[in-house]
Amino acid sequence: MRYRNDKVSITDFGGVGDGKTLNTKAFREAIYRIQHLRRRGGTLLYVPPGVYLTESFNLTSHMTLYLARGAVIKATQDTWTWPLVAPLPSYGRGRERPGGRYMSFIHGDGLRDVVITGTSANNRSDRLKHYTVNRENGTIDGQGGIWWNMWRQGNLQFTRPNLVEFMNSRGIIISNVIFKNSPFWNIHPVYCSNVVIRYVTILAPTDSPNTDGIDPDSSSNVCIEDSFISTGDDLVAVKSGWDEYGIAYGRPSSHITIRRVTGSSPFAGIAVGSETSGGVEHVLAENIVIYNSGIGVNIKTNIGRGGFIKNITVSQVFMENVRTGIKIAGDTGDHPDNQFNPNALPYVKGVTLKNIWGVKVQKAGSIQGLKSAPFTNICLSKINLHGMTGPRSPPWKCSDVSGAAIEVSPSPCAQLSSPQQSGSCANHF
């Protein structure tokens, strides 16, 4: 992690951590100073212990936002003060509502070399114990309850804000911080490259709507590792744009690595989609633990999405108490408007799922492609999914799919032939 020659404290700019004083001016002035004085090697903005209430603010390049242990940056609940920004071009509108969207709580656009971090432990085992169990890091708290209620009551005028979003940026590191109660998605790198997210804890109630943990979106070279996530939606979801807007923007997500992530969700643990219109390729997820969740691994797309999903590998997964172990579907997700092209069919090829063990799994799996665009090269090996009462969960459901399977229990669908009959998966086992 980059060493910063210059260091300032939020208290130098009038910051008060009493949980009551509004610190928006302090954060904005501190970041303005970092942006315009441009110290060689960048500047570290130190947030000491305390609760710092603030409106949303933008980061700048070559800076580190450092939260001390016991420091909390807390979003104001004055939703009427929240600034609006344009919809993402690959979505064409807000994800929830037409038109613009509320800016993320902590935001960055067109940035380079930015770090959000806190106190680190001495080694990996200490970090995992300290940051996912004791949770003594600094905290970024979105106070999302008021936004969740607006969504439930149908009172939203625009799409809710993410907790942290970086756009068109590269060289981003996020580590050793707790993120909690996001109004919408928690961490959203979009149109970014060279992003590392590690040793984070992400928390939201299971009934909080659409509080995805980490959503790399039309981004490349992203590493997500050694983290604990428990939210109201997918823990990690790889995306790349929505229907005709994502097709036109044409920026895929590629070279995404997800490893040593643990968590629970009423939806999916590891997801690809459903917004994949720019394409998703070269995704590796390994050493994942998922419990008390809806779906273990979920790859999802829809007619009208277009794009592609290819070269996806998920391995070394343990899941417990999930409704469906593995789901790959071509009929998931809604559309931004009625202008999507029904002939824009997704292309799904080269999905490898191996070394997956599950207990208390209600349904083993479902792989349902599209008649006009069957899913191909779906390769399953060494998968054992135990049911709730007996040793095995109910059979797989499959349609419009081809590939191969070996050492899968319960036995997979007939469309997945043995490796000897299908050479398409020979190099994946």
Automatic annotation (TrEMBL):
Q: Cite the Rhamnogalacturonase A/B/Epimerase-like pectate lyase domain residue spans from the record.
A: 8-134
Q: Which InterPro entries match?
A: GH28_Enzymes (IPR051801), Glyco_hydro_28 (IPR000743), PbH1 (IPR006626), Pectin_lyas_fold (IPR012334), Pectin_lyase_fold/virulence (IPR011050), RHGA/B-epi-like_pectate_lyase (IPR024535)
Q: Which residues form a coiled coil?
A: none
UniProt KW keywords: Glycosidase, Hydrolase
Q: Superkingdom, according to UniProt?
A: Eukaryota
SUPFAM superfamilies (UniProt xref) = Pectin lyase-like
Q: Which GO terms describe its molecular function?
A: polygalacturonase activity
What does the record list as GO biological process?
Answer: carbohydrate metabolic process
Q: Which family does it belong to?
A: Belongs to the glycosyl hydrolase 28 family.
Name of the protein in its database record: Rhamnogalacturonase A/B/Epimerase-like pectate lyase domain-containing protein
Species of origin reads: Gossypium schwendimanii (Cotton)
